[in-house]
Amino acid sequence: MRALPVPVRFYPDETVSSFFSRLCAANQISEYEAWRALRQEDPELGIAVTPPIARVAIEELGGLRRDAMPRIRRSYSTCKHDPTVWVRACAFCNGQGFGPTTLCRRCSRGDLVFVERFSGPICVRHARWHSNGLDVDVRDHVPSLIAQKRLNGSLHQQSIGYRTPIATIARDLIHEWWHPARLSTERIGLEEEITGLPRLVETMAALTSPALQTLLTYEHASYKAIAAVLMRLGAVARAGENVTGFAETIGVDEPNSALHIGGEKWSLTSSRSGPALEAPERLWRRILTVRAALLKHRNVRRTL
Q: pLDDT tens across 112-143, in order?
């Protein structure tokens, strides 16, 4: 198969669909025409073929070396909503994956490039908010820039990213989306998302702290007890208090099946732990999924 005459640059971790779209646009042909040519060349591709399945053929079409593009490592359904205008109904649409994100337009020289990695919404090099192809100057948002550096550093090493299930759980807790009064039509504006990045990052770090991991791995902990701790953590985050400090106060007394938070002592095993621990049904019924997501985050394969 011959390569198209106008090549385009392939960015590290770029998705196959993104590269294919940009390649067709550069050569002024429609994606339909390109697919028809590919199917004529290789009839086994079929009518319902997708770019990831035709990865090798697209590599040849773009003049790339074999296996230049990453192989399919997972299946995910891309969220159709802009995360800067987050819709509660899409909180778990990416399952255990994390979905593609866009590169900074200045890094990509103006092209819309989707990559599959844990990178956050801010390009530290250019101080631009680039999530979903936006190009917003955030030089005056110093705390958000610092939070992005933390995402790029210690949190990235733990496979914690801006679009991972852990970020979804953190948003749920911060905005009380588990509450019956908070409907799925509620949205977050771009300004709130930018200024709220430090709080989101700190909450994600707290959710993966050693103290909370100890609680989650305790097999006899009731779902309502875990839900109650998450409720408290969310309340601390909403109040603008030290979420990391709160997480460090969590202690598990396994012999006595007791949970310690600060000076308080609660039962870990009781399904009904008293008024202070009561959690809305919508939250504690999801604890199995939430707990699994928090425990699995270290096993997610990193893409650097």
A: 998 877 678 999 999 999 987 889 999 999 99
Q: Give the predicted TM-score (pTM) of the model.
A: 0.76
At residue 270 the predicted structure's pLDDT band, cuts being 50, 70 and 90, is low
Range picked from 66-70, 269-273, 296-300 for highest mean pLDDT? 66-70
DSSP structure string for 139-174 = TT-HHHHHHHHHIIIIIHHTT--TTSHHHHHHHHHH
CA angle 19/110/155 to nearest 5° reads: 75
Closest to 227 in 3D by CA, of 186, 266, 182: 266
Long-range contacts of 244-250 (CB under 8 A, 24+ apart): 244/202, 244/205, 244/206, 244/209, 246/206, 247/206, 247/207, 247/209, 247/211, 247/212, 248/209, 248/211, 249/211, 250/209, 250/211, 250/212, 250/214, 250/215
Token pair, residue 81, equals: 């909503």
Q: Which of 250, 275, 270 is nearest to 260 (CA)?
A: 250
Which of 256, 258, 286, 294 shows the shortest CA–CA distance to 273?
A: 258
